[in-house]
Amino acid sequence: MSYPTIGDGHKPGGRVVLPGTTRFGCPEGYDPAIWQARVDLAACYHLCNAFDFNEGICNHLTVMVPGTTDRFLCIPYGLMWDEVTASNLLLLDESGTILEGEGAIDATAFFIHKHIHAAGAVCVLHTHQPYASAICCLRGDDFRLHMTHQNCLRFHDEIAYDPVFNGLVLDENEGARLASLMNGKRVLLHQNHGVIVCGNSVAEAFDDVYYLERACQLQILAQSTGKPLAIVDDATALKFKQDCAADNGMANWANLHWAALKRRLMRGPGSIFCT
Fold it and tell me: Could you say which architecture CATH assigns to the domain 5-16+29-274?
C-alpha cells in the first residue's frame, strides 16, 4: 500500500518553470512577494533539517501565498528537507489542486494545514521533533510543557493539548478537529503524534518551533533527575510573556533570529534554498 498523497503523481522535485531564475533574485515576471514566501519556506525546511526537527521525508511546513486566503506552499512528497528549494515547492489551493510545481502533496499535510490556514494562520509547521514529541508520549499531568524556565514562559497559555490520537489525518473532519482545538493558540501538542506550531510569518513560526524544542528538552532533562520541577507561578509567567511582547518585541526578536539563521544557511550547502 502506498502512502496517501494528493496530486497528479509527477515525480517529486520538479521546479516551477520560472524563466530567468537567479540564485539570489526574484525570477523575471514572478510576483516578488510570492517568491519571498517561497524563499522563506525553503529556508525553514533547511533549518528544521539542520536542527533535527524533521523525520525522513515525513512532516510538513506550509505558508499562505501572499495576497490570497485559499492558497499555500508545501513540499512535494518524497523530498528530503535539505533538497527543498524556493522553485520546487508546490503551490496549491484549498481543493488540493496543484497550481504550480511537480509532484504530489502528502494527504495528511493537506488536511492538517488546509484547516489551520483557513482559521487564519499564515505559517503552519508540523514536526515530530524529538523532545516535544517525547512530551506527547506522556499521559496526564506529564503531558504538559510546565512553566519551569524562561524558554517555556513565551508559551504561557499558548499551547493546546490534544489527548486523542485517531491515526493518520486523512479526512476533512480530523483536520477541522485539530484546527478547532488550537482556537487561536500558537502551539498544539498532539498526544502520540507530534507538534503543530503557527505564526504570522515563517520567521515567527520558526522562532517558536525552535524555542519550543529547547523548552521541551530542558523539561525532559529536568524530569530525568527524578527531582521536583520548579514551576514558575502564573502571574510571573504572564508578566514575562507580556514584557517580551511589549513594543512588538517577540516579532522583532524572531525577525533578527531569522535573518541570522538565513545568513548561516548562505555560508553552507543549505544555500540552495533560495534557488
Answer: 3-Layer(aba) Sandwich (3.40)
